[in-house]
User: What shape does this take?
Amino acid sequence: MIDNNLYQLHKELRSLLGTRFITDRTVRETHATDASYHKGSIPDAVVFPKSNAEVSKIVKCCDKYKIPIIPYGTGTGVEGAVVCIEDALCVSLNEMNEIISVSTEDRYATVQSGVTRNQLNAHLTEIGTRLHFPVDPGADASLGGMAATRASGTCAVLYGTMLDNVLGLTVITTDGTEIQTGGKAIKSAAGYDLTRLFIGSEGTLGIITEITLKLARLPETISAAICSFHTVNDAINTVINFMNAGIEIARIELLDEIQMDAVNNYSNLDYEVAPTLFLEFHGSTNTVTEYSEDADRIASENGSVDFRWTTDENERKRLWQARYDSYFAALNLRPGSVGYVTDVCVPISQLAMCITETKSILVKSNLLATMLGHVGDGNFHVVFPLEPGNSDELDEAQQISNQIVDIALEMGGTCTGEHGIGLGKRAALQKEHGNAVDIMRTIKLALDPKNIMNPGKIFI
Amino acid sequence: MIDNNLYQLHKELRSLLGTRFITDRTVRETHATDASYHKGSIPDAVVFPKSNAEVSKIVKCCDKYKIPIIPYGTGTGVEGAVVCIEDALCVSLNEMNEIISVSTEDRYATVQSGVTRNQLNAHLTEIGTRLHFPVDPGADASLGGMAATRASGTCAVLYGTMLDNVLGLTVITTDGTEIQTGGKAIKSAAGYDLTRLFIGSEGTLGIITEITLKLARLPETISAAICSFHTVNDAINTVINFMNAGIEIARIELLDEIQMDAVNNYSNLDYEVAPTLFLEFHGSTNTVTEYSEDADRIASENGSVDFRWTTDENERKRLWQARYDSYFAALNLRPGSVGYVTDVCVPISQLAMCITETKSILVKSNLLATMLGHVGDGNFHVVFPLEPGNSDELDEAQQISNQIVDIALEMGGTCTGEHGIGLGKRAALQKEHGNAVDIMRTIKLALDPKNIMNPGKIFI
Assistant: This one.
């Protein structure tokens, strides 16, 4: 039955999309999974719609033949949210890459969901605006994928996450209906907040096809600073003191000593092999200078070893190079390794203790691990460079990840600050939210009664 | 059947709550409706639970006997969201007024939902924090009611609305289950955003019993300013220029000339009878001075008649008196009148035109009307002081409100920036969101299959 349905589906999609219906094995293989260790089936076909109407028709076909859909952005996620299952159709949003409109006066942009954040920011510069889209998860992810996973990243401490930076969405629901959520007004009290319901739903409730994003003014000046500390505790106390002093920092990243060692090796740098804060300040030249000076003083009071800062763009990039390279530097500690990454987020008062307890687990393990985090948000990551195919190592990493989640939950935190649930954190979600997950499941069942939209994700 | 069910319900609730189960007519009458023109049935009983467990038991009873529940905060809403229907039980959250915990380090407070914003802010001062909860809808509303209606108000331009200022909720769902949404971490990617789903759901999906709120640092200095203009257009261009210049303003309120006349009469003041901006700046003394000077210059460039500002607290309160008094001043234009208030919100580039078109409708009407708004958000209100019981006037106000909604929607705006849907904007919601309302309705039906939770609100 499935086979016949698949045959009919493929026939209709080929006729709808022509060369944008693809069964080439190489293309299918590159759409089987995301950037993580999760393994996926190879999709039977990958389609590349260009419009809301095409996405709607694709979903209607899949609804008719009960074929599961995996919406696919850039595949840069790390919890398996776009991992393919058997007999599923992969719907890539890659060719929905049009920037539909930009309003400089109202400071928003409406884009198709395949537009990446770098593409949008380049466009904003090109057309001469002094605006940018500030949510920066590191990867040049698609904005649709970022919305679907409630992405966050280094700038969230000042600018917020995708939750805070989306005004409205166009979504194709599970029966192929096109709906508009939110709008272009800066606030609204009109009914249920469907925008925020779809943000973070990881493609399980519908396909986000267009997004209206808030834009921020480019700061007059950006300054960068780095400073290292004897202990992680000192570094985090410094961050808490920054915040209590009302110093607005656009990025506050912590790299532990192992990560710093990795970066020194990878990029031929000579930073202290010690817990290190990377800071970035956005604002007027006066404000940025004032903040940097205050930060230097507070860091000193907490025993910082060194405080270097600059407003020069090239110097700033050089200073932050260690942070930019951190993921590949971690993998390079063990050439040929594959990365296993986990993240949790706790109230900032608990962060030092959470990291300390995490590190005490890591030192007892045989696995190599580095730690880095968006500590202004109380969010940190552990990266394990694993031997590909070594299931013992994978099991151990998974166990440690579970322990870290338990520690974070015990402290009032969450099992994931920004990576999402996907496949990897489903049990953790259940542990964190208990019977609230039943409410989530009821919503999923009501909006996707045939369970065709990214089935198996989020829920066990 | 209903009668017997009601009898059984009341018997069980009386036994559960004792003197906090109330059938006294005066109490019931004061819980029939909100602060608006909407008429409600008198509830058969009003209950005053004190704990999550009691709310859960009440909901379980109502679920068993299929008796509708109207969750009730302070009754300060204006779109009829808490208006009672026949045979319903009014669940007042008034005695759930405990401030459960305050974390100065993580800057959050967890409160029961009957705690009002003034109560919380007084407590934060009393215990010596330098923190405040900044969402200010004017009325001293309960924080649960504010969450349930996605409240906003004068400070939203700087601090955001309830959407932005809640970390997590305790909710009793429609079958009496207690769930926790969100948490205490500043961000999370753990599953569907139930927090934001319940915020703005107006009591139709469950009863919010506890809220964890983000707190903001009290500003070092607050300065206030007012300036008047020849036209509304000049005033709004000034606001747009403020924003483009990156001047951060905590409150930006516009009162039209009729509203200013009303206030002069009501409070014996001598302001210009002209469109007037009321401004408030929060920050360091230097920043606030700098912003005020920049604002003065920009206002002058847009032809402001006068610009008065101060950082002295008493002087500041005096300066803003006109704004504080505005609603009662409007009603006082016609002693004994009852207020009909409507609100819309548009992208700020459209605000001047939206207000101009609105005023051209108002001048053609026989009704008296004043206009005021949170113009930094593109949000404005029209207040009609109506003769009580005059249905012709009510019809005309309703018709004009519909026309204003049409104008706002045409400009990419929303039918309500902050008052919510309740009973009054149900048709407008349908007009604004079309088939997205079907998705909202599907969620309502899935989470409240017996339709006992504030039935008849939001949806036609």
About this structure: DSSP finds 16 helices and 18 strands in chain A. Chain A has a mean pLDDT of 96.
